[in-house]
Design a protein that fits this description.
The protein is of the alpha/beta class. Helix content is 44%, strand content 16%.
Length: 404
């Protein structure tokens, strides 16, 4: 068996389809984000502007966050020392879980090493513990949610994206006495649209289902205290389990769930992805704690980001660029071809010092490949107009309109 040939062929297929992922070699400039340095293909670092960070509010650069991490580092050291059960539980972990529970108006919260792990571990464990459980999953759910549902081994029903009629049709077909779980997101990060949370909760109550809401692209971003779309729309109390991340708007690393104490106890007691994983470093937890506390009290960053997103959408539309409709902070620009999307991204980086990654299958369906911009509070209008001018020039050069 020629194992290396099999592996090489697999990579060659990705190259042929324009889906091979390239990790750009950069360093962010502390205190000056979105400015960074790129080391790829240069003799030394080249200044660039980052347009695709999930650190939406630049909280990873915030003085309070950095100071908290430095203080924790010098107080307790670098690592956690083990799993939560074996020496890896610190006062920082307990305090952050209390803050997150309060953020979402829930009894308790549980930290994980990433948002992927929180989704996979919670969904797989929860569904396994409910005999005969049926999970109803939005068609555009995160890969981590899909993995968790699959790993639970339970029956899965996929409803069309944000389609309440289809969801109710599937719920009505299910046995009335079967445990049911509806899994969905608040902000869908590739299109920038929002779930009808209240209406999904109505259906859950009507058919006796639990609700699991992934708020990773919304926590910190929406609501008066950054509790997400569910806080903004005043429906958090109706959602059974809220999942979030500490690695996007909060600017650090980690994932979590917030729910009632019984569910937290069950997940922490049964989920392998929690039990057998070294806990987050107290240094990271301290930074996340500072970020959550700050964004509970400050809306300045949220307001600045929303203003930037609205401005960029307007400038792109004014320039005749195919910016996709989006009611959130996500600014997707449709290309429709994976090779072309990668080519545009490469030109932007090499010639204009603009860093934005192409988004290809399987993250989005084939034929809907795009560039995904996430302007932050520090992206000013001059940067946006320079970006739009660069895109127009490249669009014309590559005849993207005809190709797309």
């Amino acid at each position: 068996m020629d194992y290396q040939r099999i592996f090489a062929d697999a990579i060659d297929r990705l190259h042929a389809e324009g889906r091979y992922r390239v990790f750009i070699d950069i360093l962010r400039n502390k205190g000056a984000f979105p400015n960074a340095r790129c080391f790829a293909g240069h003799n030394g670092p080249k200044p660039i502007t980052v347009w695709c960070s999930n650190d939406y509010l630049a909280m990873g650069q915030h003085p309070k966050v950095i100071a908290a991490m430095e203080e924790a580092l010098h107080d307790v050291g670098a690592g956690s020392g083990g799993t939560r059960n074996i020496s890896g539980n610190s006062h920082y972990h307990i305090e952050l879980e209390a803050e997150l529970a309060d953020l979402h108006g829930k009894d308790a919260a549980l930290l994980f090493t990433s948002g992927y792990v929180s989704n996979e571990a919670t969904l797989s464990t929860l569904a396994k513990l409910l005999p005969g459980c049926i999970v109803f999953s939005d068609a555009l759910n995160h890969a981590s949610m899909i993995a968790g549902i699959k790993n639970s081994g339970c029956e899965k029903k996929v409803f069309r994206h944000n389609d309440l009629e289809h969801l109710e049709e599937l719920l009505a077909e299910a046995p009335a006495d079967s445990p049911k779980l509806i899994a969905f997101e608040s902000v869908y990060s590739m299109d920038g649209d929002v779930a009808p949370i209240a209406e999904i909760c109505d259906l859950a109550e009507k058919y006796g289902a639990l609700t699991y809401l992934d708020e990773v692209h919304a926590v910190g971003m929406y609501g008066p205290r950054g509790g997400g779309i569910s806080e903004r729309d005043d429906v958090a109390r109706r959602v059974d389990i809220i999942e979030g991340t500490l690695g996007k708007a909060f600017g650090v690393m980690g994932g979590y769930i917030a729910t009632d104490r019984n569910i937290i106890d069950v997940i922490r007691s049964y989920a392998p992805g929690f039990i057998f994983t070294t806990s987050l470093s107290p240094v990271l937890v301290a930074g996340a704690l500072a970020s959550v506390k700050h964004l509970k009290a400050s809306s300045v960053e949220r307001e600045g980001q929303q203003a930037s997103a609205a401005k960029l959408k307007a400038i792109m539309a004014e320039a005749g660029l195919p910016v996709m409709p989006s009611e959130t902070h996500i600014v997707p620009l449709m290309v429709g071809d994976p090779v072309l999307a990668k080519r545009i991204s490469d030109i932007l980086l090499a010639e204009y010092g603009v860093y934005v990654q192409p988004i290809n299958y399987p993250t989005v369906p084939r034929g809907t490949e795009r560039l995904r911009f996430t302007p932050g509070p520090a992206h000013d209008e001059a940067m946006m107009r320079e970006l739009a001018d660069a895109l127009v020039e490249i669009w014309d050069r590559l005849e993207v309109r005809q190709a797309a």
